[in-house]
Write a structure and sequence with these properties.
Elements: H1 2-23, E1 30-35, E2 42-43, E3 49-57, E4 60-61, E5 65-73, E6 79-85, E7 89-94, E8 100-110, E9 113-123, H2 138-149, E10 157-160, E11 169-177, E12 184-192, E13 198-203, H3 216-220, E14 224-228, H4 239-247, H5 265-282, E15 286-296, H6 298-309, E16 315-319, H7 349-355, H8 360-364, E17 371-375, H9 384-393, E18 398-402, H10 412-426
Parallel strand pairs: 2-9, 13-14, 13-15, 15-16, 16-17, 17-18
Antiparallel strand pairs: 1-3, 3-4, 3-7, 5-6, 5-8, 8-9, 10-11, 11-12, 12-14
Helix pairs in contact: 5-6
Length: 428
């Protein structure tokens, strides 16, 4: 028994050390840094941007390093070359005659591995024009969809999650009917324990399939929070459950029925986000006056949808919003994720017409409440061209906070400013 116990002790110590080592892995020894000669990364059309690229090992330029680099308008690089950098550095000059973004990407090849860095300069971004066509019946279509969906009663379910509750916040797993009887949307509802009425925050998700924890932190500061999933399944399962769906039945869900305005996968998703507002409106703890919708990427798009179609939304936060300006690719301009028509020679006209009803630009054109936008110039998933094109279409009060160096991720400062802006909207 003593030997058996000691063996388990050794194994436990081994796994602890392995997990600790993995948890402490951060970054890489080799980095590729690309920077422009304007601190704000902004230029006027026709002006020249001068880029400097450095391949660093432990912060020091490497010698005789092999690199590939590409340069040109984002998503449409016009130059692709190979070079050996004797002192680990290179310079490049680029320009654009029309509003948009120009990107230099450098990939170093060291020890059988590739290390990339890039910089994306803006040229008169405030003059970027969206290419999205707004159907004449756009508003009528979505009004009709919602009128029909609301004929289905919410029939909410509410289950307390004691293990997630805190001294200040009660946490529930909730669901309510969506677009038709039996079709449900699930989420995590967090409500302050202290009696009273509060503003409400609806958090809408980025792409993927995953469980959700709910926003207890914001709830502890004095608001109702509801974080929803979009796939009509409970949001409290283990990750392997969602992985099976992601690689199985829901693989590539964002491309399902994109040529069918009425059968598009996102029709139910958009309706679910709007019905989440219906559900919030039933809560006796909501003050009936202040309601914010926010999310990033796919969630940024859902924020635009809710702000455009529901007057109860008093503000929204759209961070690197996806699904914007799909048609831009048809004229050689960067389009938003999922890049439906990018690089395609034969484009289905029916798919183009259907995509117009699911384009964030067209929702942005309808918004009347204040919004907070944020994105990065280096985003290679949601091109800043599409992000700026969408922002430029909004005529309601809006705030833009650019974090130039971010790609499709957050800086801590960006996250903090986002949440602080929401809190500011909730203040009496």
């Amino acid at each position: 028994m003593k030997i058996f116990f000691n063996r388990w002790l050794v194994l436990a110590a081994f796994f602890f050390l392995v997990e600790s080592a993995i948890a402490q892995i951060r970054g890489t020894e080799i980095t590729v840094v690309v920077a422009p000669d304007h601190a704000d990364w902004n230029y006027e059309t026709g002006e020249k941007a001068r880029f400097t690229a450095k391949v660093l090992r432990a912060g020091v330029p490497m010698r005789n390093v092999e690199v590939d680099y590409e340069a040109g308008p984002e998503m449409y690089a016009s130059v692709k070359r190979h070079a050996t950098l004797e002192d680990g550095t290179m310079t490049w000059t680029g320009t654009m005659p029309t509003p948009g973004f120009y990107r230099l990407k450098v990939t170093a090849h060291v020890g059988g591995r590739d290390y990339s860095g890039w910089c994306t300069a803006a040229f008169s971004p405030q003059r970027i024009k969206a290419k999205a066509t707004m159907p004449a019946d756009f508003t009528a279509f979505w009004d009709g969809v919602m009128a029909e969906a609301r004929q289905t009663p919410l029939q909410p379910t509410v289950t307390l999650l004691p293990e997630r509750c805190t001294e200040d916040v009660n946490v529930y797993h909730v669901s309510f009917q969506n677009i038709r009887p039996g079709s449900r949307t699930y989420g995590i509802l967090c409500v302050p324990v202290k009696s009273g009425t509060y503003p409400a925050l609806l958090r809408v998700p980025g792409a993927g399939i995953r469980p959700y924890e709910g926003d207890r932190w914001m709830a502890s500061l004095g608001c109702i929070t509801l974080e929803i999933g979009i796939h009509g399944i409970p949001v409290t399962m283990t990750q392997d459950y969602y992985d099976k769906l992601f690689y199985g039945a829901l693989n590539g869900y964002w491309e399902m029925n994109t040529d069918d305005r009425d059968g598009n996968y996102y029709k139910r998703v958009f309706v679910g986000a709007l019905r989440a507002i219906d559900y919030i409106a039933t809560l006796p703890q909501w003050d009936g006056r202040r309601l914010c919708v926010t999310g990033s990427s796919q969630g940024g798009m859902l924020s635009l949808v809710c702000a455009a179609l529901d007057k109860r939304v008093t503000c929204y936060g759209a961070v690197h919003a996806a699904m914007c300006d799909h048609e831009a690719a048809l004229s050689g301009q960067p389009c938003g994720w999922p890049h439906y028509f990018y690089g395609k020679k034969d484009v289905d006209k029916k798919a183009v017409e259907a995509a117009r009803y699911y384009d964030g630009v067209n929702f942005a054109r309808l918004i009347n409440c204040p919004g907070w936008f944020s994105f990065g110039y280096n985003d290679d998933v949601v091109p800043p061209t599409s992000a700026y094109a969408t922002y430029n279409e909004v005529t309601a009060p809006k705030t833009l906070r650019v974090f130039q160096q971010t790609a499709h991720f957050w800086y801590q400062e960006q996250w903090d400013e986002w949440n602080e802006w929401i809190r500011e909207q909730f203040r009496e």
